[in-house]
Design brief:
alpha/beta, disordered N terminus, about 950 residues, eight-stranded mixed β-sheet, seven-stranded mixed β-sheet
Length: about 950
């Protein structure tokens, strides 16, 4: 690439694929000496006006000197980047390091002049904004802290690129030129701008796949059967609103259609535009199809062809090449090995999948990495009987297969502002980028429910993503913190999704139970208690209850201010049929409509028609007489009238525990939504010495790449953040122990710190409340008799702390999820039972309070069974200080405070350890990029 005289080798890590504003992709990479012809060709396609804006004068062509200057870089003081599509330049940016007087300079000068040029055909696509993010990241890496740009006043587009970026900037006007200077340090605003652009771009890239104006199915068999022919038939049967084409290179040249669908031998032969191509050809022919699609301007691909990463190392490399090849042309991919995509919108009606039936239109978005799970989800939502039933349909469905490109994160970006989706259901075998998923999930969950089943799978084959070291349970806890409704099975996924799609969120955990079966009511009551809800005693209407009785009971329960949700239990009477089911359904529906705002669920036993009737009944149905009572519709088949999709549909469940579990998830989610309105703040502490801590960390890291600090260094660093650790003095002999006790003052504790005894008071390696030297020497001898020599015990003496509850506070930086703060009680509660709560750093004051209360053993901190409540505000402050330390200094990759004894007044940190290391690279703070494979 570059000549041997260049100061740095080609920086391959600067290469990146990005999604542009319109949803297409481009590749950003450094410009090298091999790009001379590309640069000249690119410049020839730029308008005279754009050239004038770039050079402030007519500049029709580049001279040989210009070409040399713009292609020879040292990748330090002179850097050029290009955005490419199809291997050709569509835009360039470069910076030149300058001194304070504007002359060419080298480090330590920390300012550079930056300039852009975007091909006119690609202006308005957000290319310059993406290039600015990347050139700024490159500049920061090379020690440049500030950019300067000179722009003609008429060049409004480029001025807007700079001013909209969100950096702290200064503007001046001199000699007819606007001079902009801006710092490159990311700000809250620049990150917000970047993430807003990311959301819009990625959402539009998915929209191009889900709302195409035309579709070509490549690999359609001439005879019925086969994958390609099945997809074509499914698209046609669904009534797709756009253009549809069948493509097979084996078609005879004279063939013009296939069962009425225009037929072609190649995508290139199609006269009009093609937005989406479904690829169903043998794997060896896929590269040719991708090339043809790219050259024709296809916007995206759904690759159902198998034989990629799921087939082994050769397939993994084939998959990586597929992604690289498609992105060269600006196309995104769902798949390979995908089941397909569905969009039920009336103006789209796309079923580009292997599902033989189009799902009912509805407000639920579905995403599944697994095709088999996708089929199961569609089937469960489609059925009316034998489980959660009723008319609740799908807005969009994506089954990503090997998830080589488009992932759950991309689909979340689309659903976030999709007006047709009210609830998002996701089956994830893995989370390739937990940090980004958590960020997107938090934002989405604040607007609409997000229900997730997370399998125990690893990252899809072929993915080059950082693996998380966090346990599965910890990742789940962090997802819940982000507002994700985390369930264990696809049955719970559907149960919860249907409730959230049909009913309002509950205002609290108070549940009324009404029904015609005392036993079923008691089962529901017990299930509510098990799920942490607050049920009222069931109201038994007896088996003689009529539809009117149910209507009055439900209306009364909903009108009661002490009720937040109602569960109706129903069993059939002997001899009842569809008419009675319809009457009861209409009674419940009308009662719920009379007192809206509270969720209603039905637990039914062997009422096959009731579940369907609950969804089909409408309050405007004609009335007639029924033996159930005076509130009933005319007798008709329960599925003859279907209610419109939306609120008012009452979900029916075949078992009390399923209904109550779904309700419990809705209660927790509603509580999260209320709290998310005011998430709290990250407090400032005046006694924190951030600069002193940074200097200390820098000096310690100068010794090596990673190290666990000694006792004195740990205490010094923690002290910079107001975290005081009780001194523990070594006691290798009884005399040393006595001297340490005199130094610290009695009473003292004697502890064995050998690895197998540390923090294990239950093994007898600790002696407490030693009041004098005699007791201390006796305890020292006892430990020696029980556990061995002082060399084996490693005894220390520590001043006694006030009695309280022993707790553990930890912080760790995970390469994938980021910094995590954890809390639990010391001993068996945390270690054996896994009773530990987690929050992402930085932690707010409200999150610190909820963290303490999240563990199951939290009552021990609040006066359980008459014990003295401890100083939880002091504990919250300690956790906030630890959070600040790790957030301010990412080199602090692990902190453990154990035990932290929380007393009635104050607390004592009796043990601490800190590990330093160069922090993992944070890709969420850098420029927008697509994953690299």
């Amino acid at each position: 690439m570059q000549t041997s005289s260049d100061r740095h080798e080609y920086p391959a890590h600067w290469e990146a694929d990005v999604v542009l504003r319109d949803g297409g992709t481009a590749r950003i990479r450094p410009i090298t000496v091999d790009d001379a012809d590309r640069l000249v060709s690119f410049y020839e396609q730029v308008s005279d006006e754009s050239k004038y804006y770039r050079f402030f004068a007519p500049y029709p062509r580049l001279s040989a000197k210009d070409v040399h200057r713009f292609t020879h870089h040292d990748f330090v003081d002179r850097v050029g980047l290009a955005a490419t599509v199809g291997g050709e330049f569509i835009a360039t940016v470069r910076y030149d390091r300058i001194s304070a007087d504007g002359r060419a300079a080298s480090a330590p000068a920390d300012e550079a002049e930056v300039a852009f040029l975007v091909q006119d055909a690609h202006q308005g696509r957000g290319v310059a904004s993406a290039l600015l993010e990347h050139i700024a990241a490159v500049a920061r890496e090379r020690g440049i802290r500030r950019f300067a740009a000179e722009v003609l006043p008429a060049n409004n587009k480029m001025i807007k690129v700079f001013t909209d970026a969100g950096y702290t900037q200064k503007r001046s006007f001199e000699d007819g030129v606007v001079r902009l200077e801006f710092d490159l340090e990311p700000t809250d605003r620049s990150l917000a701008v970047q993430r807003a652009r990311e959301q819009r771009a990625e959402a539009r890239s998915v929209r191009r796949l889900l709302v195409p104006g035309s579709v070509a199915v490549v690999g359609v068999g001439r005879a019925p059967g086969g994958v390609g022919r099945s997809v074509l038939d499914n698209i046609r049967a669904a009534g797709f609103a756009g253009g549809l084409y069948a493509v097979n290179q084996a078609f005879p040249e004279e063939r013009k259609d296939l069962d009425g669908v225009p037929a072609y031998r190649s995508v290139r032969d199609i006269e009009g535009p093609v937005d989406l191509a479904v690829v169903a050809v043998p794997v060896e022919h896929v590269p040719q199809v991708v090339t043809e699609c790219g050259e024709h301007g296809v916007q995206g691909l759904v690759v159902v062809t198998a034989g990629y990463a799921e087939s082994g190392p050769e397939g993994r490399e084939r998959q990586r090449e597929l992604v690289r090849h498609a992105r060269t042309y600006g196309m995104r991919i769902i798949g390979p090995n995908a089941f397909g995509v569905i969009n039920t919108a009336a103006d789209v009606r796309l079923n580009a999948s292997l599902a033989p039936e189009m799902p009912r239109p509805g407000r639920i978005g579905l995403f599944a990495q697994s095709g088999a799970i996708g089929i199961a989800l569609l089937s469960r939502l489609h059925r009316r009987g034998g489980g959660v039933t009723g008319v609740t349909g799908v807005s969009t469905f994506v089954s990503s297969g090997n998830r080589a490109d488009v992932s759950g994160n991309d689909v979340l970006q689309y659903w976030y502002d999709d007006p047709d989706t009210d609830v998002a259901l996701m089956y994830l075998e893995s989370i390739g980028n937990p940090r980004k998923f958590t960020r997107l999930a938090r934002r989405t969950a604040a607007a609409k429910p997000l229900v997730v089943v997370q399998g125990a799978g690893s990252a899809p084959q072929g993915h080059a993503v950082r693996a998380t070291r966090l346990p599965h349970a910890t990742v789940s806890a962090l997802l819940r913190q982000a507002g994700v409704i985390r369930v264990e099975t696809i049955t719970e996924l559907v149960d919860t999704g249907l409730l959230l799609a049909r009913q309002p969120l509950p205002g609290g955990a108070r549940v009324a139970i009404v029904g015609n079966s005392e036993s079923l009511g008691l089962l529901t009551y017990d299930a509510c208690l098990s799920e942490g809800l607050r049920p009222s005693p069931p109201v038994d209407l007896t088996t003689a209850a009529t539809a009117g009785d149910f209507h009055r009971a439900l209306s009364g329960a909903l009108a009661d201010d002490s009720c937040d949700a109602v569960v109706v239990t129903a069993i059939p009477a002997v001899g009842e049929g569809p008419a009675e089911d319809a009457a009861l359904a209409e009674a419940l529906r009308s009662a719920a409509e009379e007192v809206p705002g509270k969720p209603v669920l039905v637990v039914h036993v062997e009422l096959g028609g009731l579940a369907a009737a609950l969804s089909a009944a409408t309050s405007t149905a004609p009335q007639a007489v029924s033996k159930r009572g005076d509130h009933r519709p005319a007798e008709r088949p329960p599925t003859a009238v279907q209610a419109p999709e939306g609120a008012g549909l009452i979900p029916a469940y075949p078992a009390a525990e399923r209904a109550v579990r779904a309700l419990a998830e809705a209660v927790k989610y509603a509580q999260w939504r209320r709290e998310a309105v005011d998430p709290g703040r990250v407090p400032e502490f005046e006694d924190i010495d951030e600069k002193g801590a940074a200097e200390l960390i820098g000096g310690l890291l100068a010794r090596g790449q990673g190290l666990t600090l000694g006792v004195d260094e740990t205490c010094e660093l923690l002290g910079k953040y107001g975290l005081d650790v009780h001194r523990a003095l070594p006691a290798p002999t009884p005399e040393d122990a006595a001297e340490a006790a005199r130094t610290l003052g009695y009473p003292v504790a004697l502890k064995a710190t050998a690895p197998h005894l540390r923090h294990r008071a239950d093994l007898g390696g600790v002696r407490l409340d030693l009041a004098d030297e005699e007791q201390l020497r006796r305890a020292y001898a006892e430990l020696g008799e029980l556990f061995g020599t002082p060399e084996e015990l490693r005894p220390v003496v520590q001043r006694m702390a006030p009695r309280g509850v022993d707790t553990v506070v930890r912080a760790v930086i995970d390469p994938a999820a980021g910094a995590v703060l954890s809390f639990g009680l010391a001993g068996a509660a945390s270690q054996l039972l896994g009773d530990t709560a987690h929050r992402l750093i930085p932690v707010t004051d409200r999150e610190a309070g909820s963290l303490i209360r999240s563990i199951r053993t939290a009552p021990l901190l609040f006066g359980w069974r008459g014990s003295t409540p401890v100083d939880t505000p002091a504990l919250e402050e300690l956790m906030l200080r630890v959070s600040r330390l790790v957030d301010d200094h990412p080199e602090v990759v692990a902190v453990t405070l154990e035990p932290v004894v929380v007393a009635a007044h104050g607390l004592s940190v009796l043990g601490a350890s800190v590990r330093l290391a160069p922090p993992p690279v944070r890709d969420d703070l850098g420029p927008r990029t697509l994953p690299v494979y």
